[in-house]
Write a structure and sequence with these properties.
Strand content: 25-35%
CATH topology of the domain at 42-128: Nuclear Transport Factor 2, Chain: A
Radius of gyration: 15 Å
Helix content: 10-25%
CATH architecture of the domain at 42-128: Roll
Distance between the termini: 47 Å
Largest sheet: 5 strands, antiparallel
CATH class of the domain at 42-128: Alpha Beta
Number of strands: 8
Shape: globular
Number of helices: 2
Length: 130
């Protein structure tokens, strides 16, 4: 079956500015890398309440937040039995967050990069008393 996208996928990420951009060149002049987005590509900014929700869920599951303060993130609605969104920051998909119908709770499903960040933040927190 063909992947269905909601229009042309134009999301790029500037590694220098650490910001999402819609062109292949950032306003700073740096080339922006294309971001891999799970179809159908229904992207939106992650607002503060989204980030708080993600970090609360990550902390409950893993003892550490996923998204540090001040980090820009993008949410992408992805197919699932109920609500599930892909979490993108620094140009990579870090995790999915989904509502588990059976338990009635939100579950964070980290990808390799997301798991590495959770571990790093947890280790830093333990090392600094954060």
């Amino acid at each position: 079956m063909t992947k269905i996208y909601l229009g042309k996928m134009v999301l790029h990420w500037c590694p220098k500015c650490d910001l999402p951009v819609l062109e292949s060149i950032c306003a700073c002049g740096s080339p922006a890398g294309k971001v891999k987005v799970t179809p159908p590509g229904d992207i939106r900014p992650a607002f503060q309440h989204d980030i708080d929700h993600i970090n609360t869920t990550a902390t409950a599951q893993f003892g550490s937040p996923l998204i540090p303060d001040g980090t820009i993130a993008i949410m992408n609605k992805v197919p699932s039995d109920d609500r599930m969104e892909e979490i993108i920051a620094s140009g990579v998909a870090l995790a999915n967050i989904r509502f588990d119908v059976e338990s009635g709770k939100w579950v964070l499903l980290p990808r390799m990069e997301g798991a590495a960040r959770i571990f790093t933040l947890k280790w830093r927190g333990a090392a600094t008393g954060w």
